[in-house]
């Protein structure tokens, strides 16, 4: 089982990595759009996970975790979209995609656990 505070650090590192990646995208209209969207949702993952840790009930925990899941899935979308549009190579985004998928799986499992305990 992954420690909640380890996840807090992982989400923050993921946000930093996404910001660095997004900032390196070409300054075309599409590159700039992906940059803004990815920075928004990646930082949202980290900040919303912090709010998960402050949840005052299981219901609040599950609801806040659902937001984190939506935001990390959006990160995965924008990274994949940049790859699909051939703005970047798989080598450049492989580690980000792997981390997004791992975090998504962890968060979904956490939400299922909380919901099944009701």
From TrEMBL:
Domain of life: Bacteria
Protein source organism: Maribellus comscasis
Lineage: Bacteria, Pseudomonadati, Bacteroidota, Bacteroidia, Marinilabiliales
NCBIfam families (alphabetical): four helix bundle protein
Name under which the protein is recorded: Four helix bundle protein
Short name of one Pfam family: 23S_rRNA_IVP
Gene3D superfamilies assigned: 23S rRNA-intervening sequence
Cleaved signal peptide residues: none
Coiled coil: none
